[in-house]
Amino acid sequence: MALTTLIEYNAASPEVRAVYDDIMATRQTDWINNFWKALANHPPTLRRTWESIKQVMAPGVLDPLTKEMLYLAVSAANGCEYCIASHTAAARKAGMSEAMRGELLSVVGMACETNSLADAYQVPVDERFSRPA
Amino acid sequence: MALTTLIEYNAASPEVRAVYDDIMATRQTDWINNFWKALANHPPTLRRTWESIKQVMAPGVLDPLTKEMLYLAVSAANGCEYCIASHTAAARKAGMSEAMRGELLSVVGMACETNSLADAYQVPVDERFSRPA
Amino acid sequence: MALTTLIEYNAASPEVRAVYDDIMATRQTDWINNFWKALANHPPTLRRTWESIKQVMAPGVLDPLTKEMLYLAVSAANGCEYCIASHTAAARKAGMSEAMRGELLSVVGMACETNSLADAYQVPVDERFSRPA
Amino acid sequence: MALTTLIEYNAASPEVRAVYDDIMATRQTDWINNFWKALANHPPTLRRTWESIKQVMAPGVLDPLTKEMLYLAVSAANGCEYCIASHTAAARKAGMSEAMRGELLSVVGMACETNSLADAYQVPVDERFSRPA
Amino acid sequence: MALTTLIEYNAASPEVRAVYDDIMATRQTDWINNFWKALANHPPTLRRTWESIKQVMAPGVLDPLTKEMLYLAVSAANGCEYCIASHTAAARKAGMSEAMRGELLSVVGMACETNSLADAYQVPVDERFSRPA
Amino acid sequence: MALTTLIEYNAASPEVRAVYDDIMATRQTDWINNFWKALANHPPTLRRTWESIKQVMAPGVLDPLTKEMLYLAVSAANGCEYCIASHTAAARKAGMSEAMRGELLSVVGMACETNSLADAYQVPVDERFSRPA
User: Fold this and answer.
1) Does E119 contact A at CB distance below 8 Å?
2) What pLDDT is stored for residue E103 in this prediction?
3) ipTM
4) Which of A50, A126, A127, A128 to substitute to test the interface with B, most B CBs within 10 Å?
5) What pLDDT score was predicted for residue D1?
6) For residue A27, is pLDDT > 90?
7) Residue in F with minimal Cα distance to B131
8) Touching C: which chains, 3+ CB pairs < 8 A?
9) For C67-95, what is each residue's pLDDT tens digit?
10) Given CB atoms, is D124 within the 8 Å cutoff of chain F?
11) Contacts of F84 (CB under 8 A, 6+ apart)
């Protein structure tokens, strides 16, 4: 048994169904993953989070594959099991090959290593890095 | 005063200088940033970290700009001030526009938000996300 | 010099000014804190983040003081200097006394301690904790 | 099989039993959750942690429900599965409704998002936030 | 100006002075570092934290130098500037040479790298690692 | 089913087998744990990570037991389930008793608590802590 009731489509309120319908239409799919079924316990969070994700992950100056890889990298750094699984799947669907996944995760690992070293040695930021573009 | 002595080129041992020389040659630049001057207090870490970074950040199936943006995303998730500054600079040098930086950081922010929500609701991983490619 | 240009009201586009005006009206204040001036470099993030914060922090079944204290607790757990400072100020303004701050931070500290112990001992979740409400 | 032996009451030393007895008396319950059975492998940690928790979580200028919600918020930010489960249960027992849980977690999510944005943009702390009460 | 008033000995209550006196006597020193002067804003936290630290850091089956190095490693992993500085100083005082510091931090860095890789690849725990001693 | 294919020895390429052989020879064992079987999906990461671990964890000015305990402490602070399990096993093999494990984890817990308190109170670093050795 889990900590959170997952709200299935058939048991959902019209407000929740409207979000589910928009998720499926936007993603051109016919199912809803568990993350949204959990958020549906608090409809304002479901709606707000979905609207934000839809806006943030839409193609812009960065393409969808790059965005999914960034999402995966952050989820790996934070150690979030669910988001690692869902965004590995999403990045693969957007075109991430296993070779790309390997390179991506090697960057994540190096960044985590050097982040801890820079913190631990208390390296002062170089003056030329402290500038706006 | 800082916690760590920064080892300048003139004060460096031949072993450290050899790494500094390789950093400058590889990056086609004439200066060494503080991170390496701090690591130089432990030459095996300086050498190993540089060799790893050089391999990981070389162009592969991912291009250098994508790699720098992934590095920045992880550094932001980990809240490492030095690495955020240095990899913002590196990503800009590799071609990241301010519009790209804005989109990148919006993805980082959303990932951090949904990571905490997925953890907090203890969302079970969907069966179809739990598969190798 | 800082990594990010802060966009002042006078230098802001009409789109950014509209958000600034709404922040000041909602908070009944006449100034804009640096967080928003930094986000203004990416107007969609400025607008989306403000709309989200405004919704999330509005009084609901939790009162504004409780919400500010929760925000501070999370910021402390994440070690975010800016957010600790700004939400300590906001919680004080909402009524947090120094005695309340002391108790709040003692809870944060204990939670961080027991979080690491529960992880390190790999304590299995008790069956009776694994239930929806 | 788990990494850590859970010490049951019947197998416990008198020193450990004394702590178990105090936990049950203080909480007016007749069972011990797994966290304490794991800590019992190191009796000084069991005793010290329990004495600290008992003091920190006692009613003070903050009420028990607020304290449990703060504990849950920090555990969510840290992604600790055990503590999220146990303090969701404790907060519900102390009166947290599902609507309150929803609002609480929306604050946690927003805080994690803005924490990463404030770090990533390296927003300087406003002078008026840098003051003691 | 800082967010927190530091309580100096001369301005401290008898309750706070008693803790300060015990810190100085235990450490055989004549000064109090800022961490305790900040905690003194909430005397119960000052007393409880000091009593815990005194017990935890006392020589036991691990010697004081090992304990200080473990403290530093955790502080580096968490990116806590204050604790990195204070426990680097404490570990040096307890006998940590610069060569030992270098090796210690190389372990911290590798652990942060492989932690993120193990999370990102969702490596299942080997059956023989899942056993109590 | 898991997110990542584990590459068994029999199915491995010569390049991967060479690393596996070196792992078994170095560790004087006849099996490969899952971490390496996962990294084998990206042979350059497998090779580089193994070479780094082999160098970092070799006896130096710190002995192997101290290094394993530091590795475990960082993994606990980061909440990495796999690395906590594997390095608890490795530290036990290197001589960590259960009493030592108990003391080690009590230090980890205290460090996480005081890290969050030092961050939350924004304690300024004492001048005498801000010095190189």
Assistant:
1) yes
2) 98
3) 0.97
4) A126
5) 59
6) yes
7) F3
8) A, B, D, E, F
9) 999 999 999 999 999 999 999 999 999 99
10) no
11) C119, C120, C122, D3, F72, F75, F76
Interface test with F, best of E114, E116, E117 (most F CBs within 10 A): E114
Chains that touch A (3 or more CB pairs under 8 A): B, C, D, E, F
Q: Give the SS3 label for residue A13.
A: coil
Name which of D125, D106, D102 is nearest C54 in CA terms. D106
SS (HEC) of F82-120: HHHHHHHHHHHHCCCCHHHHHHHHHHHHHHHHHHHHHHH
Q: How many residues does chain A have?
A: 133
The answer to whether E28 touches C85, Cβ cutoff 8 Å, is no
| Nearest CB neighbour to D80, from listed C38, C86, C115 | C115
pLDDT band with cut points at 50, 70 and 90 for residue A25: very high
Q: Model confidence over F101-122: pLDDT tens digits?
A: 999 999 999 999 999 999 999 9
User: D128 and C32 in contact (C-beta within 8 Å)?
Assistant: no
Residues F58-116: tens digit of each pLDDT: 999 999 999 999 999 999 999 999 999 999 999 999 999 999 999 999 999 999 999 99
Of B4, B5, B52, which is closest to F52 when you measure between CB atoms?
B52
Residue type, D79: G
Chain F positions in Cβ-Cβ contact with residue B59 (cut-off 8 Å)? none
B97 vs A62: CA distance, rounded Å: 10
Separation in Å, CA of A21 to nearest CA in chain B: 19
| Inter-residue contact B105 to D117 (CB < 8 Å) | yes
**CA B31 vs CA A10, B65, B131, C126: distances in Å:** 63, 21, 46, 56
Question: Computed over its alpha carbons, how large is the radius of gyration of chain C?
Answer: 19
For residue F30, give the DSSP letter.
S
Q: Give the separation between CA F78 and CA F72, rounded to whole angstroms.
A: 10
Query: Residue F94 contacts by C-beta under 8 Å, 6 or more apart in sequence?
Result: F64, F65, F68
Contacts of E57 in chain F (CB under 8 A): 107, 110
Beta-carbon separation of F42 and A109 below 8 A: no
pTM recorded for the entire structure: 0.98
The 3-state secondary structure of chain D reads: CCCCCCCCHHHCCHHHHHHHHHHHHHHCCCCCCHHHHHHCCCHHHHHHHHHHHHHHHCCCCCCHHHHHHHHHHHHHHHCCHHHHHHHHHHHHHCCCCHHHHHHHHHHHHHHHHHHHHHHHCCCCCCHHHCCCC
Token pair belonging to A3? 């900590």
Contacts of F61 in chain E (CB under 8 A): 97, 99-100, 103
- Is E1's pLDDT higher than 80? no
Q: What is the mean pLDDT of residues F40-56?
A: 98
Considering only CB atoms, which chain F residues are within 8 Å of C114?
109
SS3 (DSSP) at F58: coil
pLDDT given at position C82: 98
